[in-house]
TrEMBL record:
InterPro entries per record: Acyl_CoA_acyltransferase, GNAT_dom, GNAT_YJDJ
Name the UniProt record assigns to this protein: N-acetyltransferase
UniProt keyword Transmembrane helix, yes or no: no
Species whose genome carries this gene: Flagellimonas oceani
UniProtKB keywords: Transferase
UniProt cross-references to Pfam families, sorted A to Z: Acetyltransf_CG
Annotated ranges, domain N-acetyltransferase: 1-93, 5-93
Record-linked PROSITE patterns: GNAT, GNAT_YJDJ
Listed GO MF terms: acyltransferase activity, transferring groups other than amino-acyl groups
Length: 93
């Protein structure tokens, strides 16, 4: 599984690929130089329950830490993960 973060203009996304095939994405809006808003998570139903969404979130959290930015999780999945996982709350706005 390969996950990468792609940013363009005022948007971005983490994309998961398995053997070259897109299997999931988590999109975000860039709200400023120190803030992003996660707005949607989508995982191929064939990959449901395999932790793809969590891996996407961790990739974005890693990016946020590198850039010293905060995250507002409007996406229901991301919001639930921030409530459950204490180790990522350092980037929560």
């Amino acid at each position: 599984m390969e996950i990468q973060v792609i940013e363009y203009e005022s948007k971005g996304m983490a994309v998961a690929q398995d053997t070259g095939k897109g299997v999931g994405s988590m999109t975000f809006s860039i709200a400023g130089p120190e803030l992003i808003i996660i707005d949607h998570t989508d995982v191929d139903p064939k990959y449901s329950g395999k932790g793809i969404g969590k891996q996407l979130l961790y990739k974005i959290v890693g990016m946020a830490r590198e850039k010293s930015i905060k995250i507002i999780p409007l996406c229901p999945f991301a919001s639930a993960m921030f409530r459950k996982i204490d180790e990522i709350k350092d980037v929560l706005k």
